[in-house]
Design goal:
With about 350 residues, the protein is an alpha+beta fold. It is about 30% helix and about 20% strand. It contains twelve helices and 16 strands. The strands form five sheets. The protein has a seven-stranded mixed β-sheet with strand order 8-11-10-9-1-2-16. It has a three-stranded antiparallel β-sheet with strand order 3-4-5. The longest helix is centred in the last third of the chain and has 28 residues, at about 285-310. It is globular.
Length: about 350
C-alpha cells in the first residue's frame, strides 16, 4: 500500500506538519499539538483516506443492508436491491444510525442516541494567497479560540490544500449551548443561509480580528443548509456472536477531540487480531473472542464519548488546571511562526 501519510495528508503539497493550535482569550501565546517524529499525527483528508483504505478491496458500492439473520452456523444479509450475502462474521461499521446495531440490540437509534445540547452552524470557504497563509499560521491543520465569556465555541479547520499550493478549502463550525435545538420551531430549522451567517458574524464580532477573518470571508452560499444535530452513544454491553460492531455504530461521539475515526481504526485492528486464525465453525471460540473485543472496545469507546462530550463544556473552557488533549496528545506550548507559501512548497 502507498505510504499512509503521503497518500492522505491534507496539507500536501505543502511541506508542513499537521498542527492544531489552541488560543485562550485570557492567556498569552498559544498551545497545541504538532506532528513530530516522536509524536506523529496524520491529519488525513477524508476522500483520500477512503481511497487509501479501498486499496485492493473489491467494494460493491450502493449496497444498503435491509435485514440480517444469524445463528451459530453463519450470517446472512439481505440488501435493498434484493441481493444477499452470506458469511462467517458480519462487522457492522455502518455509522451512527447503524442498522446492524438495531438488529443486534432490537432497539432503534432514537432509543439509544443521546442529544448533545448544542446548536451548530457550519460554513465552508475557499481561500488563496495571504488569506490562506494567515489561516495556516494560526494552525496548519486547525485551531480553536477559547473564552468562557464568549458564549460559543468554534473550530476552524483546513479541509485540504489545492494542488497549486497557494489556495485551499476551509471549513468551520460555531456552536452555542442549546437544549432546544431539536424543536421543530427552533430558529435554525427555518433560517436562511444569510440569516445563519449574520448570526455567526454578530457573535464573531467579539473575537480579535485574525480569529474573525475566516467567518468574514465565508459567503452565504458556503453555509450548510441542514441543521446539524449532535448525538452520541454510550453502550454498556453487546451480545457476543457472529455479528460485531465497530466505530460510530458502537460509540458515536462529538468531534471535539478528533477521536471518533481514531477509535474506529483501533477497533478494526483489535477485532482483526482477535479473529485472525479462528476456526470459523467453532462458535464457542468466536463468542469468546468477540466478548473480549466487546469488553475492551466498549470501555475505551465510552470513555472517549464522555471526554468528547465534555471537551466543549462551559466548565472545561473555564478550567485552567486540567490538561487539554487533542488528536490524542497532551497540548504543549506552540510558538507562532510566519509562513512563506513558496518556501513550504514540497
Ligand atoms: C464534522 C466531523 C469532524 C470529525 N473529525 C474527526 C477527526 O478529526 N478525527 C477523528 O478521528 N474523527 C473525526 N470525526 C469522526 C469520524 O468521522 C467518525 O468517527 C468515523 O467516520 C466513524 O467511522 P465509521 O466507519 O464507524 O462510520 P461512518 O464513517 O459513518 O461510515 C458508515 C458507513 O456505513 C454506511 N451505511 C450506513 N447505513 C448502511 C446500511 N444500512 N447499509 C450499508 N451501508 C450503510 C454509510 O453510508 C457510511 O459509508 C469527525 C466527525 C464529524 C462529523
Amino acid at each position: 500500500m502507498e505510504d499512509l501519510k503521503q497518500a492522505t495528508d491534507h496539507l500536501q503539497p505543502l511541506n508542513l506538519p499537521a498542527q492544531m493550535g489552541i488560543y485562550f482569550q485570557d492567556r498569552p501565546g498559544r498551545v497545541g499539538v504538532e506532528d513530530t517524529p516522536d509524536a506523529p499525527i496524520i491529519r488525513a483528508e477524508r476522500r483520500r483516506l477512503r481511497n487509501w483504505l479501498s486499496t485492493n478491496i473489491p467494494i460493491q458500492w450502493g449496497k444498503k443492508v435491509n435485514t440480517i439473520e444469524h445463528n451459530d452456523e453463519g450470517v446472512s444479509v439481505t440488501f435493498e436491491d434484493g441481493s444477499t450475502a452470506k458469511g462467517d462474521i458480519l462487522v457492522g461499521a455502518d455509522g451512527i444510525n447503524s442498522i446492524v446495531r438495531q438488529h443486534l440490540l432490537q432497539k432503534p437509534a432514537k432509543d439509544l442516541l443521546k442529544l448533545v445540547p448544542l446548536a451548530a452552524i457550519v460554513g465552508e470557504v475557499a481561500l488563496e494567497g495571504d488569506a490562506f497563509k494567515r489561516q495556516l499560521e494560526l494552525g496548519h491543520s486547525a485551531y480553536v479560540y477559547m473564552s468562557p465569556t464568549l458564549g460559543f465555541a468554534n473550530f476552524n479547520g483546513l479541509h485540504e490544500v489545492n494542488p497549486d499550493g497557494v489556495s485551499a478549502k476551509y471549513y468551520w463550525m460555531l456552536m452555542q449551548p442549546d437544549a432546544s435545538v431539536e424543536d421543530s420551531e427552533h430558529w435554525l430549522q427555518k433560517a436562511t443561509q444569510q440569516e445563519k451567517l449574520d448570526h455567526v458574524l454578530k457573535l464573531a464580532s467579539k473575537l480579535p480580528a485574525r480569529f474573525r477573518e475566516l467567518f468574514e470571508l465565508t459567503p452565504a452560499s458556503g453555509i450548510k443548509t441542514e441543521t446539524h444535530i449532535w448525538r452520541d452513544l454510550e453502550l454498556e454491553s453487546l451480545p457476543a456472536g457472529r455479528v460485531v460492531l465497530l466505530g460510530d455504530s458502537a460509540h458515536a461521539m462529538t468531534p471535539f477531540r478528533g477521536e471518533g475515526g481514531y477509535h474506529s481504526f483501533i477497533d478494526a485492528m483489535k477485532l482483526s487480531e482477535k479473529l485472525v486464525g479462528l476456526d470459523s465453525k467453532d462458535i464457542d471460540a468466536i463468542n469468546a473472542a468477540v466478548a473480549e473485543y466487546n469488553s475492551e472496545m466498549l470501555e475505551r469507546g465510552a470513555e472517549a464519548v464522555r471526554n468528547s462530550r465534555n471537551e466543549n463544556s462551559d466548565k472545561r473552557t473555564r478550567d485552567t488546571k486540567t490538561k487539554l488533549t487533542t488528536a490524542n496528545q497532551l497540548v504543549r506550548p506552540l510558538p507562532e511562526v510566519e509562513i512563506d507559501l513558496k518556501a513550504v512548497r514540497s
